[in-house]
């Protein structure tokens, strides 16, 4: 059971890294004082919105699994 949880966390972690790296670059550069510091708001559409939602879901599942890991290995 413990090996399955560790492999699941590893796969989720790698998938989360891949999804974050696939997202558009420079979307938050203005927050840190980048060259283009004008506050522009834009709507996510299509694949960008899907990647954003998938990032939130994978992150939530990863955190939940990490928090439940000590409880689940005792079962």
H/I helix tally: 2
Number of domains: 1
Tell me the strand percentage band.
under 5%
Q: Helicity, in percent?
A: 55-70%
Low-confidence runs (pLDDT<50, min 5 residues)?
A: none
Shape: elongated
**Largest beta sheet, briefly?**
none
Number of strands: 0
The overall pLDDT average reads: 82
Which radius of gyration do the C-alpha atoms yield?
17 Å
Structural class: mainly alpha
Distance linking N and C termini:
9 Å
- Written as H for each helix and E for each strand, in order along the chain, the element string is HH
Polypeptide structure, described:
With 75 residues, this protein is mostly helical. It has one domain (2-25, 41-72). It is built from 2 helices and no strands. Helix 1 runs antiparallel to helix 2 (47-72). It starts with a helix and ends with a helix.
Question: What's the SSE blueprint?
Answer:
Blueprint: H1 2-22, H2 47-72
Helix pairs in contact: 1-2
List the defining traits of the structure above.
single chain, 75 residues, mainly alpha, 63% helix, elongated
């Amino acid at each position: 059971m413990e090996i399955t949880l560790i492999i699941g966390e590893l796969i989720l972690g790698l998938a989360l890294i891949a999804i974050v790296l696939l997202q558009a670059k420079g979307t938050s550069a203005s927050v840190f004082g980048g060259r283009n510091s004008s506050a522009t708001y834009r709507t996510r559409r299509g694949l960008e919105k899907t990647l954003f939602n998938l990032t939130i879901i994978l992150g939530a599942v990863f955190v939940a699994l990490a928090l439940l890991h000590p409880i689940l290995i005792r079962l």
